[in-house]
Specification:
The chain is mainly alpha-helical. The chain is built from 13 helices and two strands. It has a two-stranded antiparallel sheet.
């Protein structure tokens, strides 16, 4: 089977594995999703659909800064797409998309970097995307979104090692997108993984590439980073 068929199979397996979210009216109604993300997504979506930035909400607690809270993913483009939906439906769609995104990224990473067979790459993709570690973070949608970018970052980093310019820009954009998901610990873990990969493959070029890519990503994330730093002061 071709790679396209295997990618379609990853999509199909995602829908089957998460069939209550894909084919029923069930929603997540417990944990962080219910008590934390639903209210914040409702406030953020209301602002975005009204054509304004979600700067502040008087309806949560005694008033909270929204834009300064990176966990609501204001600048993460996939969140804009689901903004017209209710928070439960938006998170449902986001879960399905990012699980499949993680699986496809892992498949392509295994094929390019490890140069394994398509069947082995598919097995790795299923183990990662539908495995216990990834599935354990379903209730933390921002963390799930961030984790889904890890195989893509490794893939883009390996791709950029061959020809740093202009491929480093693609790596920087992916890093910025991961940061915009709102889970900084995942970004930190990803940078550690990229650093270890650089040292084990092409240390000098890899470290320089990662430093340059990180600086570009830092500039791209300024719209979220600056208000967050202001809140921390």
């Amino acid at each position: 089977m071709s790679s396209v068929v295997h990618i379609l199979l990853i999509l199909a397996l995602t829908l089957v594995f998460f069939y209550p979210l894909a084919f029923t009216d069930h929603i997540l109604a417990r944990g962080d999703t219910y008590s934390y993300h639903y209210p914040y997504w409702a406030a953020r979506n209301a602002a975005l659909t009204a054509g304004r930035l979600p700067l502040w909400s008087p309806d949560l607690f005694m008033g909270v800064p929204l834009l300064a809270n990176p966990q609501i993913g204001t600048f993460y483009p996939p969140n804009w797409i689901v903004a017209p939906l209710s928070p439960p439906d938006g998170i449902r769609v986001s879960i399905l998309f990012h699980v499949a995104w993680a699986g496809i990224g892992t498949y392509l990473l295994a094929r390019r970097t490890l140069r394994v067979s398509r069947t082995a790459a598919l097995t790795g993709a299923v183990i990662f995307a539908l495995g216990g570690y990834f599935g354990a973070h379903i209730e933390q949608i921002n963390q799930l979104q961030g984790l889904s970018w890890i195989p893509w970052l490794l893939l883009l980093f390996d791709w950029a090692l061959e020809k740093p310019f202009p491929r480093t820009v693609a790596l920087s954009i992916a890093l910025a997108l991961q940061f915009f998901t709102g889970h900084t610990q995942t970004v930190f873990m990803s940078l550690i993984a990229l650093g270890v990969y650089a040292l084990l493959t092409r240390p000098v070029r890899g470290v320089i590439l990662l430093a340059v890519g990180g600086l570009i990503a830092l500039a791209l994330t300024a719209p979220q980073l600056l208000p967050t730093l202001e809140l921390m002061e």
